[in-house]
Amino acid sequence: MPELPEVEIAARRLSTALEGARVESTLAPGMVVMKSFDPPLAELEGREVAGVRRIGKMPIVDFATAPGSARGELSLLVHLMSAGRLQVFDKRASLKDKRSRLLIRLAGGRELRLREFGTKQRAWAKLLPTGAVETDEMVATLGPEAWPAPPLEELVKLLDQPRQLHPLLRHQRTIAGIGRSWSDEVLWEARLGPFKKGSDLEPAEVERLHAGLAVLGAAIDTYEETVGETVPDKMPMPLRVHKREGEPCPRCGATLAAVHFAEHSTTYCPDEQTGGRVLKDRRLSRLLK
Length: 289
Ligand SMILES: [Zn+2]
Description:
Distance between the termini: 30 Å
Low-confidence stretches: none
Oligomer: single chain
Strand content: 15-25%
Number of strands: 10
Bound molecules: zinc ion
Order of helices and strands: HEEEEEEEEHHHHHHEEHH
Number of helices: 9
Shape: elongated
Mean pLDDT: 94
Largest sheet: 4 strands, antiparallel
Strand order of the largest sheet: 1-6-7-5
């Protein structure tokens, strides 16, 4: 799933590629992709792309006002969910492509396309007046951005909750932008166990977590150097521990361990993050109940 660093680089590349491009037509092959109906998607026709940006894990495409339109600037707020990709293509998609959810056809034959891999249709988009983005429920309820990291004093307050760190860092209303991959990385950087509770953190531990959030910025820097004009389907994520169970910890050499859940896993270094303890496998304990 694209998280803050991946959506950030995608937004930067899309913005460069699309700024000033004029919309010719739009199509929503995904039956349930549009979560808004007014203004209609057709309202984008004739408008120019003003830019592409990001809030949390959501890309936003801004469109300038069209000459003669009674509507002002519009923005397309996109939620990629677990398998969505927003990319620009030189040629238009075949209408048989079952991955297409939203097609925005641009002058000159290019196309901005929201695609979704896998069989589930979960990705969605909303077309809103640009001024209404901030107050949209999905945006207004987000916590502060995880990158750049909020001030330390703010992070102390945000994390003071009786919830385990791994889900707490992924809770978008607490802090926005982190998912399963980067949560593993941030906690490894901070040498903190994934199931330690936020409210149990010592001041020095919150400081380590605060410093650990810098991996998000480092990932964006890496992408700036490695990702070309076109963002690939599968981003070469600079992950050091996520999904590397059984491999040596890149810092201390201990064998990385993982806790498996039904559809995902959490990787950590037992020596540095859990005081040598190997955490219970949640799949197994669920089966034994
Ligand atoms: Zn280690």
